[in-house]
């Protein structure tokens, strides 16, 4: 089991987690904008054929590459 988490700078305010059975090729945290990335809301895991995006507020996005 592989676990990744991104917690916001403000305690108890926000955060997001991602659990997977397979190890991702690459994991990135945030969206590349310092103003938003301090809140710990997005994790993107890259796999061979897809990207898995976990975002705070009950959103999970699966992007399949064919």
Description:
- The chain has 66 residues and is mainly β.
- It has one domain.
- Helices cover 6% and strands 50% of the residues.
- It contains 1 helix and 6 strands; from the N terminus they run βββαβββ.
- The strands form 2 sheets. A 4-stranded antiparallel beta sheet has the order 3-4-5-6, with no helix packed on it. A two-stranded antiparallel ribbon has the order 1-2.
- A hairpin with a 3-residue loop joins strand 4 and strand 5.
- The protein is globular and about 35 Å long.
- The model has no long low-confidence stretch (mean pLDDT 83).
What is the secondary structure topology, with strand pairs?
Elements: E1 2-7, E2 15-20, E3 26-29, H1 34-37, E4 42-46, E5 50-55, E6 59-64
Antiparallel strand pairs: 1-2, 3-4, 4-5, 5-6
Question: Summarize this, please?
Answer:
By secondary structure, the protein is mainly β.
- Portion of residues within helices: under 10%
Counted by DSSP, the helix tally is 1
Q: Give, in order, the helices and strands.
A: EEEHEEE
Radius of gyration: 12 Å
Strand order of the largest sheet: 3-4-5-6
Structure summary, number of beta strands: 6
Uncertain segments are none
Task: Specify the structural class.
Answer: mainly beta
Q: Bin the strand percentage.
A: over 45%
Largest pleated sheet: 4 strands, antiparallel
On the 0 to 100 scale, the average pLDDT is: 83
Measured distance between first and last alpha carbons: 26 Å
Q: Per the principal axes of the C-alpha atoms, what is the gross shape?
A: globular
Overall number of domains: 1
């Amino acid at each position: 089991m592989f676990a990744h988490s991104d917690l916001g700078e403000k305690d108890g305010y926000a955060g997001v987690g991602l659990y997977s059975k397979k190890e991702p090729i690459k994991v990135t945290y945030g969206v590349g904008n310092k103003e938003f990335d301090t809140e710990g809301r997005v994790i993107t895991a890259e796999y061979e054929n897809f990207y898995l995006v976990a975002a705070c507020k009950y959103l999970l996005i699966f992007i399949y590459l064919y």
